[in-house]
Amino acid sequence: MKLKLNKKYLSFYYEEMADQELDLTLDLKKTALMVVDMQKFFLAKDGADARAFKAAGQWERWEPYFDRIEKITVPNNKRLIDCCRKNGVEVTYGRIACLKDDGSDRCLVQSTVGWNNILLPISNPEVAMMDDIAPVGDEIVVNKTTDSVSLGTNYSELMRTMGIDTIIVTGVVTDQCVAGTVRVLADHGFRVICVEDCCAAPDMELHDMELKIMNVVYCSVLECDEVIALIEEGAAKN
């Protein structure tokens, strides 16, 4: 399928490609979806993060992010997950979950002062994915104490063992765990697609800038409708 490059996400390095088309096809047996950190702790409007922001008097600043999650990110992830399951694309998940209750197994990135000081033991019920996009059956879920799913777990090894060479990435937050996952997957030799409207960041400027930085070199930035069309095209060829 030939797709027009989104000029919004072309950086200085690739501006000359603005009029080019992206020619993409998917071998569905070699393609997986990775949903990053779409957990109740971070995303539910009554979850731990939301409760903390409300208690600190910061809800007004954070509410647009939670609204995007509720109205755009989760619904689009559900559409994409449903499409993948229907057409035989492996659905996988990465989630933040430390094994030690005191968080002593967390990497420095997730134990620094501030918003990234994330203490989320695997025993906490809010470690679960949002209900509408929760894993089913034997879908792979890897637990991480790093930002990158593919650096802090055996995820890349699992995908290679299963014959996967293309990974579609969605989730939160765009400029941190999503970006970390995309970059390491690319360095591990996978072809990566990042789905813009299946991701979110608290600051849309950061969201857009990170996608602009990663596009072309680390991944192909596409919209949910484009990825669904690619999957349906791949299914029609089988």
TL;DR of this structure?
The chain is α/β, with parallel strands linked by helices.
Overall description:
- This protein is of the alpha/beta class and 238 residues long.
- Helix content is 37%, strand content 18%.
- The chain has 7 helices and 8 strands; from the N terminus they run βββαααββαβαβαβα.
- The strands form 2 sheets. A 6-stranded parallel beta sheet has the order 5-4-3-6-7-8.
- Helix 6 (204-214) links the parallel strand 7 and strand 8 (220-222).
- It is globular, with a radius of gyration of 17 Å.
Q: Which helices and strands, and how do they pair?
A:
Elements: E1 2-4, E2 21-23, E3 31-36, H1 40-43, H2 48-55, H3 59-87, E4 90-96, E5 141-144, H4 155-161, E6 166-172, H5 174-187, E7 191-200, H6 204-214, E8 220-222, H7 224-237
Parallel strand pairs: 3-4, 3-6, 4-5, 6-7, 7-8
Antiparallel strand pairs: 1-2
Helix pairs in contact: 2-3, 3-7, 5-6
Shape: globular
Q: How many angstroms does the end-to-end distance come to?
A: 15 Å
Order of helices and strands: EEEHHHEEHEHEHEH
What is the tally of helical segments?
Answer: 7
Helix coverage percent: 25-40%
Tell me the strand order in the biggest sheet. 5-4-3-6-7-8
Q: Helices and strands: which structural class?
A: alpha/beta
Find the count of extended strands (DSSP E, 2+ residues).
Answer: 8
Low-confidence stretches: none
Return Rg in Å: 17 Å
**Arithmetic mean of pLDDT:** 96
Proportion of β residues? 15-25%
Q: Biggest β-sheet, characterized?
A: 6 strands, parallel
